[in-house]
Amino acid sequence: MSQTVNPTIILGGGFTGLFTALHLSHHKYPKPITLIDRCDRFSFNPMMYEYLSGEMSDEQVYPRYLDLLEGSKVRFVQDSVVSADLPQKCIRLASGLNYTYDNLVLALGSVGSFFGIEGAKEHTFLFRTGEQAIKLGRHLRECLQKATQTEDERQRRQLLTVAIVGAGASGVELAATLADLLPNWYQELGGNPEEIKIVLINRSYQILKGSGNSKNVENSIQDTAIDALKNRNISVDFLFGASVTQVYSDQVEYQKEGQIASLCAATIAWTAGVTANPLIKNLAVSEEYKTRRGYLLVKPTMQLPEYPEVFAGGDCALNSKDDLPQTAQVAYQEGKAIADNLLALAKGKELSEADVSLRGTLLKLGLGESVANLFDRYQIKGKLGHTIRNSTYLTLLPTPVHNFKATTSWLIDEIFEQYSNAA
Ligand SMILES: Cc1cc2nc3c(=O)[nH]c(=O)nc-3n(C[C@H](O)[C@H](O)[C@H](O)COP(=O)(O)OP(=O)(O)OC[C@H]3O[C@@H](n4cnc5c(N)ncnc54)[C@H](O)[C@@H]3O)c2cc1C
After folding, report:
1. Is 62 strand, coil or helix?
2. Backbone angles phi, psi at 358, to 5 degrees
């Protein structure tokens, strides 16, 4: 009697999950592969700013899974995962469907965290997916349009003020993009760009905590970013040392130096924090195999210590061997490592430890401007930094945008080759 082969199920089609699926398919994995995501499109997060600004199209950075996976042997299921019963090897979906697996990949990423601040969830814009980028873009255009129509100066000022909470990489990149973009958009409508105000709010006085703060590089990436934020089409205002205490639909209340104050803004974007996906937090995994904040601690092979048939990577997991940042660079390499180990398992071979390398810190600092801190030694700014950043990410774009890969991969290989030899 033939035994049923359960599919290898991949939960989450982000950098880890999608790259696991594509890699398995390219390498003729002998088992059925099912990829489950609640969205119908893959969000190429590092380039969401280009999507917002119109520098890139949805085909390039927000493509449909069905298009990406066409011709592969991956079956895509659009549904929300409700729970994963690891002891029973069973996945439950919002539609009521259940799946049983032999091997599972957990690649559900992280979720935005509002730290319990009243009104933050209801009244702020997140910027983590293509859908959220579209929503923010539409809202900003509406505000600019209304601002050109109102005679009320106070209302116009509010419509033209954008508050961005959090000065990590996402907050800084979003502020820099908007400080170039909104003046252009407003001018097209006949408005005065100088009336636009972008305010970056941060609890501490240090921005970009944990990003490329190397002593080997002459200028810190923080100094470069501050410089760039001051030199956009309009200068970004800094409100540092300010803890947000409450958010309303039209203002942010904060505490600074013991005083409560507020900032009126028709647009409030939230980039202040992330936390583990609730589904990951609720898994039947012993406390010793989770971090204090609920992320999974995996073995160097990316397996869960208590469930060797289950792999996890990207933002929902931490490799016990190294403490790598939650980035796309790490996530897709872990996806490839997971796929290699699933292929090894299928062939009865030994599993290998994931070997993940960081190319450096790459930040977008406005339209056509970026900074690249390479190998903890070299900092490249301006247009060349921008070319390096874009080339790096464009080479990662999954099918079917082969043209981009073809035109950029030579460039990035040349540049990285040159710098890695020198390092
Ligand atoms: C705006 C922004 C800019 C960024 N810029 C950079 C950058 O420049 N460089 C860099 O290296 N990194 C960057 N990052 C970080 C990078 O995007 C993440 O580290 C990376 O996406 C993590 O990959 P992942 O596969 O773990 O998770 P994700 O890519 O977040 O994918 C998780 C997937 O799981 C799905 N999912 C979640 N829960 C469920 C559920 N219950 N049911 C079904 N599906 C579910 C989601 O829809 C999503 O598709 C950026 C992130 C953001 C938000």
Report:
1. coil
2. -100, 130
Tell me the domain boundaries of the chain: 8-112+275-358, 120-272, 359-423
Pairing of strands 33-37, 8-11: parallel
**Number of Cβ atoms within 10 Å of the Cβ of 304:** 22
Return the CATH fold of 120-272: FAD/NAD(P)-binding domain (3.50.50)
Would the pLDDT of 414 be above 90? no
> Which residues does residue 35 pair with via DSSP β-bridges, in sequence order?
10, 76
Among 9, 11, 15, residue to substitute to test ligand 1 (most atoms within 8 Å of Cβ): 15
46 C-alpha vs ligand 1 centroid, how far in Å?
A: 9
Is there a cis peptide before residue 400, judged by omega within 30 degrees of 0? Answer: yes
Ligand 1 atom nearest 42 alpha carbon: 49
SS3 122: helix
Return all residues near 330 (Cβ < 8 A) that are at least 6 apart.
Answer: 314, 324, 356, 358
**Greatest CA separation found in the chain?**
80
CA distance 399 to 86: 32
Is residue 48 within 6 Å of ligand 1 at its C-beta? yes
Give the chain's length.
423
Ligand 1 contact, 389 CB (< 6 A): no
Phi and psi at 342, nearest 5°, equal -65, -40
Q: Is the pLDDT confidence value at 401 over 50?
A: no
Closest ligand 1 atom, residue 331 Cα: 23
Q: Helix 169-188 vs helix 221-230: angle between axes, to the nearest 10 degrees?
A: 20
Nearest atom of ligand 1 to the alpha carbon of 317:
26
d(CA 199, CA 81): 37
Q: What is the CA radius of gyration of the chain?
A: 22
Would you say the pTM of this structure is higher than 0.70? yes
Atom of ligand 1 nearest to the CA of 15: 25
Distance of CA 150 from the midpoint of ligand 1 (Å)? 39
What is the arithmetic mean of pLDDT over 123-127? 97
SS3 call for 110: strand
User: Which residue reads 């880890």 in tokens?
Assistant: 16
- The domains spanning 8-112+275-358 and 120-272 adopt the same CATH topology: yes
What is the second-level CATH architecture of the domain 8-112+275-358? 3-Layer(bba) Sandwich (3.50)
pLDDT tens-place string over residues 220-267: 888 889 999 999 999 999 999 999 999 999 999 999 999 999 999 999
